[in-house]
Every structure is written in C-alpha cells, then in structure tokens.
Amino acid sequence: MSTLCLAFDPFLDERYAQEIAWTWRYLLNGAGYAWRVCHLGEPSDIAYVTEPQRAPHARIVIQATPRLWERRSAPRLAGVGIASGFVYPLYEGECADEQVITYDQGRWIVDRDVVFDVFWLLTGQEEAQLPKNRHGYVDLSGTPYLRDQVMRRGLASGIGARFEQLLVDAGIPPGEPRWPYAKRAAAAISHDVDYPEVVRWLEPLRVLQRQGVRGLPAAFDVLIGKRHHWQFDSWLALERTLGVRSVFYFVARQGSLREYALGTPDSFYDIRAPHFRALFRNLIDAGCEIGLHSSYHAYARLEQFAREKRLLEEVAGVPVVGNRHHYWHLDPLNPEATLAIHEQLGFLYDASLAHDRYIGWRRGSCWPFFPLIQQERRELRTLQLPTAWMDSQIFLQRDADLEDADEVLRELADRTVAQGGMLLVNVHDYVFDDVLFPGWSATLRRLWEYLNARGDFWMTTPAEIATHWQERYRRIAASSIGLGVDRSVAVGASL
C-alpha cells in the first residue's frame, strides 16, 4: 500500500485542525493512500499551506485559506466553477478562476482551497440557511443547486477524483483500488417497504390522483382486489434476471390511518404477522438484505429507535446493519444528531442523507463517507451510503423541463464511474405493477441493463458495499500515522 507524506502549515491550530484532518481522511481514504504527517520543512508528497513558498520541497502544494475555515458556514453557493479539471463550488462574491493548477519549479500548485470546498460540501454547511417544509425537506427553489444541477455533479467526490489524478500526474503510484474485481464503481438497489398491503377503499382514490380519469379501470381493479401492492416475488424475479440482490427496508413500528391524518405518516403493516415472517425467509434465501426503515419520529426517541431495530432483528432472524429513515426524516434542525444515534445503535451504515424531491447526491459525494459530528468534532463510525435517486423524484416531482428519465439516470451512472463512486437507487416496494405505476419498475430495469452493458459496476447489496468500505478504511488507517487516526481507527485526536 502506498503511503503519502503530508506536511501542514502551523496555522492548523485547535480551532479547525480536526475538521481539516477529517476532510483529508476522506480524500486520502477515497484515493486509497495511507498517510504519514511530517514536518513542514521535510520533503513531502503533499503540503497544505497558506503560501506555496512555505513548502519548497513538496511535490504537490495545496493553498489553504484560513478565512474560509474561520467563517465555515458563512459562504453561500453562487454557482459552479470549472478550471484545470476541478469542478468546485463558487461562493457568493467569488469570481471563477481561469486555472486552479499550475506547475512551477517541479511542483504542482493548487491555488484554491479545495480541501475547504470538500468540507463545506460534505457537512452541508449551507443547509441550515435554506428554507424547509414541515418534514424538514430543504427547498432549493431558485437556488444554484437546481439551476446548475449541483447535486448531480457530485462536487466533493469529483474534487477527490481530480485530486487522485493529480497524484498520478505527480508521479505517485496509484492507491488501493476502491472496489473489488477490478470494477470502477459500485451499484445497489434499495426498496423502502412503505405500503405492501393496499387499503382497498383508499388506494383507488390515490390511483385517480396520480392518473386522472384514465386511471378508472386500474382504480376499480384495486377496489375489487384484482390488483395489489404485494410485489416482492416480482422484484425477486426481475432482479434475478438482472444479476443483482437488493435490500428491503422494513418499518418495524406499525402506524395507522388516524396517526397518518394527525401528522405521523408511519406505514400500516405489522412485521410480526405470519406472512411477513415467511416473506423475510424468502428474501433472505434469495440473498437479499433486510434493513430498517426507521419510523417517522424515531430520531427523537432513542429507545423507540432501538426497539424498532431489535424487533426487526427478532422477526427477520438476522442482524440488521443498515438503516434508512422513513420520509428521509432526520432531525430537521440538527441532522448530525440523528447520524450520531446510528452509531449508538450499532448500525454499519445509514442511507438517509438525500433530498426528497431532487435527484443527485445531497452532500456532493458519490463516495461513501464517515460523517463528521461538528459539535463533538469527531468522525462517526457508522458509514453514510449516499442515495442518488428515488423513483418519485421522476414520477411524482417531475418538473416541466426535466430531461428524459433514462438519460438523467445514465448520466448519473456515467458520473459515478468517472468519480469511482457508488450508485445507490431507491425504488419503492409497491410500484412494480405497470398499470398502477406506469414506467416505474421499467425505468429501474433499463438503468440496470445499462449498468450491465457497461460491465464496470460491482453490483451487490448496500451491506456488502459498506462492509467492503469499512474494511478498506481500516487497512488504510492501520498503515497510517497522524490525521487523528490511530491503528484502531479511533479518531478525533489532534493532527
């Protein structure tokens, strides 16, 4: 495993040293390099300094900007800048650079603080300043996030991929591959099990709401029981033909129509029922993963959250290592507090940091990452798997100017490969029927046929992706010195 020598400017004091260390761990782990922190005066592979002349013996110099770290959340996104292969956030008051990388006296010099850019994106610094609705969904209307389709660009992982290429340009051997079997990217299908059992008097009204009068025959079929939402066998059959195994996230807390009407929209089914117990056995025998779809208010009630996990494990008969929040409902005022609960409950991964309405990567990364809990200035042990697309973002939230769905999803796939990331998609359990939900499952099928045709995706369950990434990180950290990680990956120490 290649080890890089890093030198840091003394300006990295206790005010922001741990935040910078966390960001560097993201970059270096993503690129597959172990690290060793050395003194600024020593020869180094990379120097992160306020002035390039402070690191005359570094092969790559990245210019740090202390005022950005001091302000942290103050910058607002104005657009996207593109220069020297970097695609980066352009903050209000900034002008786009003509070039970001220069070559001077045998050194590559990055004239922009791309390390801060990655920190700003991964921690969602601007989210607290944006309006939210009653579910906590961020409203991006009228912002550059939509105008420039920032979420689809994967800016943070894109900076990481460009940084990785810069290392190769500087003559440094490639790092450890991100994915096994010589694949360039990973992909996984997830299903939120929200509504597997139809409320026969209610669902016809929902069909008519989606389809209008042309949905009358389908609505009648639902009313008489001819059409239903129990589509698990159909999904298994399709996924067998596609050569992929998915994850099904189940809600363990049973809700009700009354609660739904009063503002707690949990699902209505009971996982303890015999037919669900049989379903779990079938899914597990097919190689699928069983995950928790934590209830709407789980984030606010630790013991309730824990009970849901224990109940699902008891009924399914397998450990539950992955979670996604129902309605993506993390603490609207402090999402990091919810992410910290995942660690307390022992989840291997969570997949909840996504936008409800908008396609793309909410925190700008198609690389998995360990979130930073800023209040405690430490890295979580529960991995975040970024979700790129949910079915309703196309079929229920379609804007008039949205491009062809297949084209949008193929572009996401291509960008994922270009950045060496993962493509996690979310298609609900009940939308397989093409009469009730025209095009929903077919869109997923066409996307996966495209991934199969490419041949460069490792396609597996989210749990297997998370296990691979965790083990890879441990190997890299075990060979590293500094940046707040000891050989047991206990983070949060000083640089």
Structure description:
- The chain folds into two domains: 3-178; 185-196 and 231-460, Glycoside hydrolase/deacetylase (TIM Barrel), CATH 3.20.20.
- The protein is an alpha/beta fold.
- The protein has 17 helices and 19 strands.
- Helix 3 runs antiparallel to helix 6 and helix 7 (203-211) packs antiparallel against helix 8 (216-223).
- The chain is elongated and about 80 Å long.
- Mean pLDDT is 93; it is low at 487-495.
- Helix 12 links the parallel strand 11 and strand 12.
- The strands form four sheets. Strands 9, 10, 11, 12, 13, 16, 17, 18 and 19 form a nine-stranded parallel sheet that branches.
- The protein starts with a strand and ends in a 17-residue tail after the last helix.
- 35% of the residues lie in helices and 18% in strands.
Task: Give me a quick take on this structure.
With 495 residues, the protein is α/β, with parallel strands linked by helices. It has helices at residues 17-31, 66-71, 114-122, 144-147, 150-153, 155-169, 203-211, 216-223, 232-242, 257-261, 274-285, 302-316, 335-344, 392-395, 405-419, 440-454, 462-478, and strands spanning 3-8, 34-38, 44-49, 58-63, 77-83, 86-91, 101-104, 107-110, 185-193, 247-250, 289-294, 322-325, 349-350, 372-373, 378-379, 383-384, 387-390, 422-426, 457-459. The strands form 4 sheets. Strands 9, 10, 11, 12, 13, 16, 17, 18 and 19 form a 9-stranded parallel sheet that branches. Strands 2-1-3-4-8-7 form a 6-stranded mixed sheet.
